[in-house]
Specification:
CATH topology: Rossmann fold
Oligomer: single chain
CATH superfamily: NAD(P)-binding Rossmann-like Domain
Number of helices: 8
Structural class: alpha/beta
Bound molecules: NADP nicotinamide-adenine-dinucleotide phosphate
Shape: globular
C-alpha cells in the first residue's frame, strides 16, 4: 500500500495541458499525485494507461483499488477529448464516451475510495457546536461552450457533449453528497495541444489578436490559470462548502 499520509489525488490526463499544470501545482501544495495518461508524466507517480480502451480502464481501477485501499482524496478529470470532424460518427461517439461514459466508469469504480479518503477538518467553533466534517472531491474540466451559443455557432456536438457532462455531474453531486463534493469548470480558450489552433495562436499575429480580443483581459488562458481553480476546488480547506457548482474561467469572454 502506498504512503497515505499525504492526501492523494488522481489526475486523469496528466502528461500535458491543464491536467499536467494542475498536477504540478497540487504537488507543490503537498498533495500526493497519481498521474494517469498514455505517455509518461514527470509529475507524481506516473501510471500509463490508455483510458480509451476498456481493458486499460479496468486495469487502472484495479490498480488504484489495490494500491490505495485506504482511500483517495480527489479525482481531477482532464482527459483529452477531441472532435475534429463532426461528420465522423466514430469521433462523435468517442466524444460522448470520454466526457460522460468513462467519467461515470471512474466515479462508480472509485466511489468507495473517495469515501474512505475523505479528509476531516475542524470547523470554526460556533455557539451551537463544533462539527467535525470531512469531504473528498471530484473536479472535471467542462467548457464554456456548454453554456453559451458561441458567436459563430461552431462545434455544436462538442458543446452538447460538455453540456451532457455538466448535467451528469450536477446529478451525481446530489447522490454523492455530503461526503464527496462534485464541481466542474467552464473553461474558455486555453492554449494547450488540445486546441488545434494553438500553433496558429503563436505564429499568426492576426489570429492571436482575434482570440485575445474575445476576452476582457486581452489574452487566451494558460494551463496554469485553470490549474489554480482546479486546486482550489479540490482542496476542501479552501472550497469545503462548494459542491454541485460550475465556475466560469474564460478571461471574461462570455460576458462580451
Ligand atoms: N484547452 C482548452 O481550450 C479547453 C477548454 C475547455 C475545456 N477543455 C477540456 O479540458 C480537458 C483537458 O484538455 P487539455 O486542453 O488539457 O488537453 P491536452 O493538452 O490535449 O491534454 C489531454 C491529456 O489527456 C491525456 N489523454 C488523452 N488521451 C488519453 C487516453 N486515451 N488515455 C489516457 N490519457 C489520455 C493526454 O495524455 P497522453 O496523450 O499522454 O495520453 C493529456 O495528458 C478536456 O476535457 C477538454 O475538453 C479544454
Amino acid at each position: 500500500m502506498k504512503n497515505q499520509e499525504k492526501r492523494t489525488i488522481v489526475v486523469m490526463g496528466a502528461s500535458r495541458g491543464i491536467g499536467h499544470a494542475s498536477a504540478k501545482l497540487l504537488t507543490e501544495q503537498g498533495f500526493n499525485i497519481i498521474s494517469i495518461s498514455r505517455s509518461p508524466s514527470d509529475v507524481g507517480i506516473s501510471m500509463q494507461f490508455d483510458l480509451y480502451r476498456q481493458k486499460d480502464r479496468e486495469k487502472c481501477i484495479t490498480y488504484l483499488q489495490r494500491e490505495y485501499s485506504n482511500g483517495i482524496y480527489g479525482i481531477l478529470y482532464c482527459l483529452g477529448s477531441y472532435l475534429y470532424d463532426e461528420e465522423n460518427i466514430e469521433e462523435v461517439e468517442h466524444l460522448w464516451q470520454t466526457n460522460v461514459v468513462y467519467l461515470h466508469t471512474f466515479i462508480t469504480g472509485l466511489k468507495n475510495l473517495l469515501e474512505k479518503g475523505a479528509f476531516p477538518f475542524n470547523m470554526e467553533p460556533n455557539r451551537y457546536k463544533t462539527t467535525l466534517k470531512k469531504t473528498s472531491s471530484i473536479v472535471a474540466v467542462a467548457s464554456i461552450d456548454s453554456i453559451k451559443g458561441g458567436a459563430n455557432g461552431r462545434n455544436p456536438l462538442y458543446a452538447a457533449a460538455k453540456g451532457a457532462q455538466v448535467s451528469y455531474l450536477r446529478r451525481i453531486s446530489v447522490s454523492l453528497s455530503p461526503i464527496i463534493r462534485v464541481n466542474w469548470i467552464h473553461a474558455g480558450f486555453v492554449m494547450t495541444s488540445f486546441t488545434k489552433d494553438h500553433i496558429l495562436y503563436y505564429t499568426n499575429r492576426d489570429f492571436k489578436d482575434q482570440i485575445d480580443n474575445k476576452t476582457l483581459l486581452n489574452r487566451a488562458g494558460a494551463p496554469t490559470d485553470i490549474a489554480a481553480l482546479c486546486s482550489f476546488l479540490l482542496d476542501h480547506e479552501k472550497s469545503g462548502w462548494i459542491t454541485g457548482s460550475g465556475i466560469v474561467i474564460d478571461g471574461g469572454a462570455s460576458v462580451r
